[in-house]
Amino acid sequence: MNNLNEVEQKIAESLLQIKAIKLQPKNPFTWASGWKSPIYCDNRITLSHPAIRTYIRQKLSQLIQEEFGTVEMISGVATAGIPQGVLVAQDLGLPFTYVRSSAKEHGRQNLIEGEVISGQRVVVVEDLISTGKSSLQAVEALREAGCNVVGLVSIFTYGFEEAVDNFAKAKCPFFSLCNYESLIKVAVVNGYVLESDVALLEQWRKNPSAWVSE
């Protein structure tokens, strides 16, 4: 598996092993958006596996320190980014907040839960990046609250060009522990998919909205 680093390989192997990621190029899933997809990802399953959960926490913390230096707060994206963010914040000894998908309809009608201090250097934690829209809504909410959001980290990204463009427009650097391209390499080597499926899987990533399985 040339060009794969140790973290990408271990994360990919772990996600496939515990079925947090399933690949079905011949029997695709249907996303809420209506897209047909050969992949289904639910990184919440990692929370039920202590060794994998610990490895992800450690590597996300390390990634944040390497890429962003001094950080003053961690914020998770509801819902799947919340537990991952809490683990990272605990690991780094930092305050934690999370951003709702929409403002609460009662009480103080909070969009951000937790104490926000204007000017804080914040890194957002997400479990998965597809188009990046929901992640960037959280980034925008934190910025509007006065935070200095320096970037975002996630466990996995599909690597869509749309996401790259969206994060670039938002001037928000983002880094993931593993990506779709690396996952497919690991999946082939470990027998989760056939070599003959690779072209079909690559076609989906390049144009997911128009993809049709054969």
Question: What would your notes on this structure say?
Answer:
This protein is an alpha/beta fold. It has a single domain (6-206), classed as Rossmann fold, CATH 3.40.50. Helices cover 39% and strands 21% of the residues. The chain contains seven helices and ten strands. The strands form three sheets. A six-stranded mixed beta sheet has the order 7-6-5-8-9-10, with helices on both faces. Strands 1-4 form a two-stranded antiparallel sheet. It has a two-stranded antiparallel ribbon with strand order 2-3. Helix 6 runs antiparallel to helix 7 (198-206). The protein starts with 5 loop residues before the first helix and ends in an 8-residue tail after the last helix. 38% of the residues are buried.
Helix content: 25-40%
Q: What is the CATH topology assignment? A: Rossmann fold
Percent of sequence in beta strands: 15-25%
Head-to-tail CA distance between termini: 27 Å
- Characterize the largest beta sheet: strand count, sense, and whether it forms a barrel: 6 strands, mixed
Mean pLDDT: 93
CATH architecture title: 3-Layer(aba) Sandwich
* Order of adjacent strands in the largest pleated sheet: 7-6-5-8-9-10
Shape: globular
Radius of gyration of CA atoms, rounded to a whole number: 17 Å
Low-confidence regions: none
CATH class: Alpha Beta
Output the number of helix runs: 7
Total beta strand runs: 10
| Class by alpha and beta content | alpha/beta
The total number of structural domains is: 1
Q: What sequence of helices (H) and strands (E) makes up the elements? A: HEEEEHEHEEEHEHEHH
Binding site for 5-phospho-alpha-D-ribose 1-diphosphate: 100, 104, 106, 126-134
InterPro entries: OPRT (IPR023031), Or_phspho_trans_dom (IPR004467), PRTase-like (IPR029057), PRTase_dom (IPR000836)
Keywords: Glycosyltransferase, Magnesium, Pyrimidine biosynthesis, Transferase
Binding site for orotate: 130
